[in-house]
Amino acid sequence: MLVGVSGGPDSVALLDFLRLFRDRTGLPPEGVAVGHVNHGLRGAESDADQAFVEDTSAREGLRCVCSRVEPEVRRRATGESPEEAARALRYDALREMAARIGADRVAVAHTADDQAETVLLRLIRGAGLKGLAGMAPMRRVHGILVVRPLLTTTREQVLEYVARRGLAHRTDSTNLTPDARRNFVRLEILPRIREGMNPAIRETLLREAAQFREADAYLAEEARRELPRAVRVRNDGKIALDAATMLHYPQLLRKYIFRCALQELNGETLDLSKAHIEALLSLLTSSTGRSVDMPRGIRARREREAVVLDFRESEPGNGETPSNT
Question: What is 271-318 written as a DSSP string?
Answer without folding.
Answer: ---HHHHHHHHHHTTS-TT-EEE-GGGEEEEEETTEEEEEE-SS---T
